[in-house]
Design goal:
- The complex is a heterodimer of chains A (1002) and B (440).
- Among the domains of chain A are: 84 residues, Carboxypeptidase-like, regulatory domain (Immunoglobulin-like, Sandwich); 113 residues, Beta Complex (Ferric Hydroxamate Uptake Protein, Chain A, domain 1); 37 residues, no CATH class.
- Chain A is 5% helix and 50% strand.
- Chain A has nine helices and 56 strands.
- Chain A has a 22-stranded antiparallel β-barrel. In chain A, strands 10-15-16-13-14 form a five-stranded mixed beta sheet.
- In chain A, a hairpin with a 2-residue loop joins β22 and β23.
- The longest helix of chain A is centred in the N-terminal third of the chain and has 15 residues.
- In chain A, 50% of the residues are buried.
- By secondary structure, chain B is mainly alpha-helical.
- Chain B has one domain: Serine Threonine Protein Phosphatase 5, Tetratricopeptide repeat, CATH 1.25.40.
- Helix content of chain B is 47%, strand content 7%.
- Chain B has 18 helices and nine strands.
- In chain B, the strands form four sheets. Chain B has a two-stranded antiparallel sheet.
- Classes of the chains: A mainly beta (1002), B mainly alpha (440).
- Chains A and B meet through β26, α6, β29, β30 and β34 of A and α1, β1, α2, α3 and α6 of B.
Chain lengths: 1002, 440
């Protein structure tokens, strides 16, 4: 026949779709097996046409992030080919700064968290969802309070006076994540404004080769958040609703009235004069004066009163996504209302998002991502305040909650003022309006070259209003009401432009990126306060009889950057990546304005070598090594200038010198080396990653102690060194892949922090003697420094302390003393864990899925700073921890609780150190996807019902509440707040939450 | 070609914009701008007064350290409790902060003094005089707290405090300065005050005037037991005609505006935190309810002594507290630092010790009559000192008075090392030239 005379060829046409949601895969590659030069890519509707030689037997379909599919040619003709999302770690697409990369090509270290692990979690802010999900990422929810700071440390702490938190980037735009501190309260978390249900994935850049592209802000790691996008040719409507209950993870135990009176009486007798009086008063006199109501048989359980029986949450997420071959969209509305486990505290978020993409023609596309949110936080006082809900445990159980003469009124003469007085009398709200958006344009002027430009905006407006009426005068000292309004407007805007050039053939794959960015930051705040209101119904400053203060602040900074990166892959085996960034930052000194941050990394895919090829047991093996430099900027905006600031005296305004100039001031410099192995076993059924790193930070931005006789106690200088060294292990295994699926994920990370050089000085976290955390050369940052408790003298019940005086031979005197002042201060504990780990298992069978995540922290100590009052043998009338029942009573008693003597043995010492290791059943989710035939009648495509439990069980030896804790007093007092880790001062425990939800799609 | 032009214009966005990195603060100004003209120097002088409040906690702290029988301390604040227990740790943060804040004020004064040349010549010395008055006030508190009193040991060899008289930007070049001896520090203080006295105006609102300098000078001389000079300076204030004792004792304290009895006060506005009255006042007044007054103290007043009425019962805690430091309704009661009654009592003592008992009797009776008591017919030193104690209790005098008269704090001798602050450990750590006090 005629056509037989032509070269033997045939044309294959088909369409490539996603296995999961049947959307077209655009740009998938189709090549002939054994003749890779013959190939094509799929079009916008997923279709392809390829002319192949007759001898061609099979075609290979590849698409980034999907499993490779190999099919005989004849089966491809007019076929619909489904590719499924790659389940293995190695095929994950990672979002890196200014681009994306497949994990198997990656030479740096990036952890990825997908939306399944984020969606619908009963938390306030997205950082909590990172906990236990990534090696090397240590997340501490500091208390059960909602809306406050969450501590995230990636590969350890690498700063003392600059930020220790990572940089957050949303859809390519650096956002403002610096904690918001309104007058006199703890740090509010600006990330709580983001609705994490809109997140598609979170990528965490950990090593220097990944983070160096973010230059001066890469030292603490970078968290890249990508929000969800629509998919072409399908319109999906999703509704997700859940409802849950929250309770404290752990309750403590306190003395009841009978125990209280017994122990108080015993303490009094131990210290009273011979005639049975103290300062001339008998025990009865004292109780009558201070414990009104003690004769009435009250037995109030104050601890229970700090908790809100209504604690829980409601979440609703509604979104529509879809599009056609030119335009895609994702539009969502989210509502979340969370009530804390403690009274007074409530968090509400209402948010909307619209993400759009549009392809103008084959070479030009643009898009925008935009979210608006409004959050309302009912704030609570810091732990230090008697009005803090958790402080209520200090009240005596012999006193009543309500006034016996008027059961509607709170009893006024409690030992301390307490939080229940605030319930009806204080209105303290922080409202945020957040606009976060960006718009971008991609243009492909010639093949292989893409130019990208974008503009991003993050505008944050905070209205923080506090009103105290006349009934809380005991705490405020304001008999006629007090009000403060604080407004802040923070604008962070940025623009970046970069070009990406990619080239690929058989042996070489090159991708190069070059660009620049500019970021500006402007913030303004305004405050006014007044007092003496006509009555308790008036709450605005305009009704105040007296305006007592007002203030206005304004500040700016800007960053100008140039960056570039080249990724090169040769012979499918050898990987090389070079990147660098030049950052100019207005916050640096005039003489040191620009910093240079290079990084180099290389990888070798050993499994592609012939000796290892075709060993199916070892399906993938890659060695990686990277080196790079990152930076960290100062927290304040004008740290290098000599400054005078305003003051006032005798009705005249004055100026005060507040800072001496340091024109040499520059960034902290972290040099990080990372070596790692990526591997896949048994056809990648088991895959994993092992990394070892050393992070050396030099030129710390340190508030260096200088002789105060100069007029300044400290000066911010680049001085000192710190080191973090650690290993990380990440394992993922598909244990069973049949109808019954079982997947296991395991993370382990160990980081050791050492302050290697701070000139021999020791730096206290605060200078008000509240915290015992310090920075000491040769130790980890934040170690506890105080006298060492040696137990109780069985002969007389005295608290004993080790002398720990250094002897001439360099040893320490282990003799004991009952005089605290004779005992030396020593390092008595380290709040940094030896290692952190997590184990996640997912089981699925038909529509049923069970996910279980255990998360643990091991080898860290916690300090119960509240022990000085909770276990002080009645230094005042505070109720005591139940452990005090075990006090020393008579000669021969062996116990670690001293004789009750009003304060004895209660100063800061290792007596209040506890092992704060814990293991938690962090998350247990059970979901059931209803069979399609059940729900089709309802017009639904999909419907899932689920149960989620969060923080369900905690295993720990810690006895002073929840071991995952850090007091917010630091934000109030401390000069170096990030140094304080693991201190507990009447801090409320975490919440455990149970929730039920339903998710529908149509 | 079209593409190339477009690409080039795209890349134009890469052009440098270095100017954007020059950002000046909006609430603050840099040093060379701040003090470049007379206006700047004058506002910086006001600023020097403003920060005085930060170190004048010493009025409270020295009283806690001196007290053995008058106060009831009901606070858990460790550093202050250490003062009361006379068992001060070298890391005590009140001791540390007092050092830091004092030198901060001294530096501000030094920095402004260094720039005083831009002030018109006619006013220059007056501005300098105010600054030197403030500096002397702070140094006098420093020497009292951190060094042996003049009356113990040899002032020429007792360690004082470092004298720094240059601005921070210069002292930073050589920051490790040793302690001068007590005599040198007194000499420095007196030189400042003599200059201040000579150059300050007769009247200066709430700021220092020439009599304020004399009043402080009389305190310094009294401490040195230079009774003639102390008497002369006190007399200069008393006879100036500018000040008089108020008839109503209750109007003397916690006033929003200076009274005619006030020679120097620290001005307080509602925004300021006044630690002295906060710590002494009850919760209902808006204070912290940390300090009560013992029953025993009340027995020290004679029947009819109006000063025994300067107390109130805090109902919240059923505790007696002093009205001298009761937060007022507008929360802006000034901190009384020097008032006329002290001048009478200083002169009385100095007159007595210089052989003028009649003059002394006259002065003591002025004070007694105002307190509603009958005049005495003769006095001895004990009577004068007892009158001084009752009149000035809680105002920060006892600590100095016991030391200079070589008496006891309860059972503790006046020159006991525990009755002197330690040099803060943080300061010893960064300044190798400093020596610690005996006993620490």
């Amino acid at each position: 026949m005629f056509y037989l005379c032509l070269p033997a060829q045939q044309t294959v046409a088909g369409i490539i779709l996603d296995q999961g949601d049947h959307t077209p895969l655009v740009g998938a590659s189709i090549v002939v097996d054994g003749a890779e030069q013959i190939g094509t890519t799929s079009g916008l509707d997923g279709s392809f046409t390829l002319t192949v030689p007759e001898e061609a037997a099979t075609l290979v379909f590849t698409y980034t992030g999907y499993q490779i599919k190999v099919m005989p040619v004849e089966e491809c003709q007019n076929a619909t080919i489904h590719l499924s999302v790659s389940a293995t770690l190695l095929d994950e697409v990672l979002v890196v700064g200014y681009g994306t990369q497949v994990r198997s090509d990656m030479t740096g270290n990036v952890s990825k968290i997908n939306k399944e692990d984020i969606e619908g979690m009963p938390v306030t802010s997205l950082e909590s969802t990172l906990q236990g999900r990534a090696a090397g990422v240590f997340v501490t929810n500091e208390s059960g309070k909602l809306g406050f700071n969450i501590d995230v440390r990636i590969r350890g702490t690498s700063s003392i006076n600059a930020s220790v938190q990572p940089l957050y980037v949303v859809d390519g735009v650096v956002i403002n994540s610096q904690d918001q501190v309104a007058f006199n309260n703890s740090r509010l978390n600006p990330l709580a404004d983001l609705n994490f249900n809109d997140i598609e994935s979170i990528d965490i850049l950990k090593d220097a080769s990944a983070a160096a592209i973010y230059g001066t802000r890469g030292s603490n790691g970078v968290v890249i958040i990508t929000t969800r996008k629509g998919k072409a040719n399908t319109t999906r409507v999703e509704l997700d609703m859940n409802y849950g209950w929250s309770r404290p993870t752990i309750k403590r135990k306190w003395l009841n009235a009978e125990q209280y009176l017994e122990l108080w009486g015993e303490a009094f007798a131990n210290v009273a004069d011979e005639d049975g009086t103290l300062f001339g008063l008998t025990a009865e006199d004292w109780k009558d004066n201070r414990l009104e109501g003690w004769r009435d048989g009250n037995d109030t359980n104050w601890e229970d009163l700090m908790y809100n029986p209504e604690g829980g949450q409601k979440q609703m997420q509604f979104n529509i996504s879809g599009g056609n071959d030119k335009t895609t969209f994702y539009v969502s509305a989210g509502y979340s209302d969370q009530t804390a486990i403690i009274i007074l505290n409530d968090f509400e978020r209402l948010s909307g998002r619209m993400n759009l993409t549009h392809r103008i023609n084959e070479r030009l596309d643009f898009g925008m991502n935009m979210s608006l949110s409004r959050t309302v936080l009912e704030e609570v006082p810091v732990d230090w305040d008697f009005a803090a809900p958790s402080g209520i445990v200090a009240q005596s159980p012999v006193q009543p909650l309500y006034d016996p003469d008027d059961p509607d009124e709170i009893f006024a003469n409690t030992v301390y003022f307490h939080a229940l007085n605030y319930v009806d009398n204080v209105d303290w709200q922080s409202t945020n309006l957040r606009t976060l958006g960006n718009a971008y344009l991609n243009w492909q002027p010639i093949d292989n070259l893409t130019l990208h430009t974008d503009f991003g905006l993050d505008n944050f407006y905070n209205d923080n209003e506090r009103y105290y009426n006349s009934k809380v005068a005991r705490n405020t000292g304001e008999p006629n009401g007090w009000k403060r309004t604080w407004l802040a407007d923070v604008l962070h805007y940025s623009t970046s432009t970069y070009a990406t050039y990619g080239l690929q053939n058989n042996d070489h794959k090159v991708e190069a990126t070059l660009g620049m960015s500019y970021e500006g930051h402007h913030e303004e705040s305004f405050s006014i306060s007044g007092r003496n209101f006509p009555n308790d119904d008036f709450q605005n400053v305009s009704s105040a009889g007296e305006i007592i203060s007002g203030g206005e602040d304004e500040t700016d900074f800007s960053v100008l950057s140039y960056f570039g990166r080249i990724n090169y892959k040769f012979d499918k085996k050898y990987l090389l990546s070079i990147s660098s960034r030049i950052d100019g930052d207005s916050r640096f000194g005039r003489d040191n304005r620009y910093g240079f941050f290079p990084a180099v990394s290389a990888g070798w895919i050993l499994s592609e070598e012939s000796i290892l090829e075709n060993k199916s047991s070892l399906s993938y093996l890659k060695l990686r090594a990277s080196w790079g430099v990152t930076g960290n900027s100062p927290l304040t905006h004008f740290p290098s200038l000599g400054l005078f600031e305003g003051g006032r005296y005798g009705d005249q305004s004055g100026i005060i010198q507040t800072q001496i100039p340091n024109p040499d001031l520059k960034w902290e410099k972290t040099t990080q080396v990372d070596v790692g192995v990526d591997f896949g076993l048994l056809d990648d059924r088991i895959s994993g990653q092992v990394d070892y790193y050393i992070k050396n930070t030099n030129d710390l931005l340190l508030n260096t102690n200088i002789p105060a006789t100069t007029g300044f106690a400290t000066q911010l200088k680049n001085f000192g060194k710190m080191k973090n060294e650690g290993i990380e292990l990440m394992l993922s295994s598909h244990n069973l892949t049949g109808a019954f699926k079982w997947k296991t994920d395991f993370n382990f990370s160990k980081n050791r922090n050492t302050v290697t050089d701070i000139g021999g000085q020791s730096i206290e976290a605060d200078n008000s003697n509240v915290s015992i955390s310090q920075v000491i050369e040769g130790q980890a940052v934040g170690v506890f420094f105080a006298p060492e408790f040696a137990g109780v003298d069985p002969a007389n019940g005295d608290a004993l302390f080790y002398l720990n005086t250094e002897l001439e031979n360099g040893q320490f005197d282990r003799g004991t003393t009952n005089t605290l002042a004779e005992a030396q201060f020593v390092v008595i504990g380290d709040p940094n864990p030896d290692f952190i780990y997590s184990l996640g298992n997912t089981f699925s069978w038909k529509g049923l899925e069970l996910r279980i995540l255990f998360q643990g922290v091991f080898g860290n100590e916690g300090y119960n700073a509240g022990g000085q009052f909770q276990m002080d043998g009645f230094g005042w009338f505070d109720n005591q921890d139940i452990r005090m029942l075990n006090r020393w009573q008579q000669p021969g008693d062996r116990t670690d609780i001293p004789q009750l003597r009003f304060l004895k043995g209660s100063n800061d010492s290792s007596r209040f150190i506890e092992d704060a290791s814990y293991l938690r059943l962090k998350n247990l989710s059970l979901s059931y996807q209803l069979p399609p035939n059940w729900i089709e009648k309802l017009g639904l495509q999909q419907m899932t019902v689920y149960f989620t439990g969060y923080n369900l069980v905690t295993f720990t030896n810690y006895q002073s509440g929840d071991p995952e804790v850090n007091t917010d007093i630091k934000d109030y007092f401390a000069t170096n707040p990030s140094v304080i880790i693991g201190e507990n001062f009447f801090t409320p425990p975490q919440a455990k939450t149970f929730l039920f939800g339903i998710k529908a799609g149509f | 070609m079209k593409e190339i032009i477009l690409i080039c214009s795209f890349l134009f966005l890469f052009s440098a914009c270095d100017d954007y990195l020059d950002i000046e603060p909006q609430q603050a100004i840099s040093t060379n701008v701040a003090l470049s003209d007379e206006q700047g120097v004058r506002t910086a002088l006001i600023g020097t007064y403003d920060i005085l409040l930060s170190s004048e906690h010493v009025i409270l702290n020295s009283e806690l350290l001196a007290d053995t029988e008058d106060l009831i301390w009901t606070s858990f604040i460790v550093p202050l409790t250490e003062l009361l227990n006379k068992n001060i740790a070298v890391s005590n943060n009140n001791v540390e902060n007092f050092w830091i804040y004092s030198y901060r004020i001294i530096n501000q004064a030094n920095t402004v003094l260094d720039a005083v040349g831009v002030v018109a010549e006619t006013d220059r010395d007056a501005v300098a005089a105010e600054l030197r008055f403030i500096r002397a006030l702070v140094y006098f508190d420093l020497i009292n707290m951190y060094a042996k009193p003049w009356t113990a040991g040899n002032p020429e060899s007792s360690l004082g405090v470092p004298i720094v008289s240059i601005p921070a930007e210069e002292s930073l070049d050589n920051p490790e300065v040793p302690r001068n001896n007590v005599a040198e520090v007194y000499e420095f203080i007196i030189a400042d005050l003599i200059f201040a006295k000579a150059n300050l105006p007769e009247q200066n609102g709430v700021f220092a005037n020439t009599y304020t300098a004399s009043a402080l000078l009389s305190r310094v001389y009294l401490m040195q037991e230079k009774f003639e000079s102390a008497s002369a300076e006190a007399a200069r204030v008393i006879t100036s005609g500018r000040y008089e004792l108020l008839d109503d004792l209750s109007q003397v304290f916690n006033q929003s505006d200076n009274s005619v009895e006030d020679i120097f006060t620290i001005q307080i506005t509602p925004q300021d935190f006044n630690p002295v009255s906060n710590f002494y006042s009850g919760e209902l007044e808006g204070g912290n309810a940390f300090i009560g007054v013992t029953d025993e103290h009340l027995t020290k007043y004679d029947t009819g002594d109006l000063r025994a009425k300067l107390f109130y019962n805090d109902l919240q805690t059923n505790t007696r507290r002093t009205s001298k430091w009761r937060v007022n309704a507008t929360k802006d009661g000034n901190i009384t630092t020097i008032r006329l009654a002290e001048m009478y009592l200083t002169r009385a003592e100095a007159r007595f010790r210089t052989g003028d008992p009649a003059g002394a009797l006259e002065d003591v009776n002025v004070i007694r009559r105002r307190a509603g008591l009958l005049s005495l017919s003769d006095v001895d030193l004990d009577v004068i000192l007892e009158e001084r104690y009752l009149e000035l209790i809680f105002e920060g005098h006892q600590f100095r008075d016991i030391k200079r008269t070589r008496r006891f704090f309860g059972g503790i001798p006046f020159d006991d090392p525990q009755m002197i602050y330690p040099i803060p450990q943080r300061e010893l750590d960064v300044n190798g030239a400093l020596l610690q006090n005996e006993g620490y």
